[in-house]
Amino acid sequence: MIIAVATENNLVAQHFGRCPEYTLFKISDGGVDEEKVIPNPGHEPGFLPGYLANMGVKCIIAGGMGQRAQSLFHGESIETCVGISGTVKGVVEAYLAGELQPGISSCEHPDGGHSCC
Predict the structure, then answer these.
(1) Which of 13, 29, 43, 68 could join 8 in a cystine, given CB atoms 3.0 to 4.6 angstroms apart?
(2) Does pTM top 0.85 for this prediction?
(3) Based on the structure, what is the number of domains in the chain?
């Protein structure tokens, strides 16, 4: 399983699509086997779910993500955990321990705009 964390300065980024990079964690037997950072290929509506699915991502963690994006990720069988903040490694440790508590997305766009950015 691969977890992708929207990342900015080693913290969980508050907008999954506009973060500078993603930190990917390959997980097996309840632990991290591999960690790598990839640059964000760009914020193009509908692109990232397929892009990350092709890399084997099964979960994305971010501070915020709109409902349409969450729906597109779910269509790719990718779990979304939003409303998350903290260090990237701390958040992944909490996820693996079953202690990560998703909250309210920090980036909701009921009118389709991006005023949070």
Answers:
(1) 13
(2) yes
(3) 1
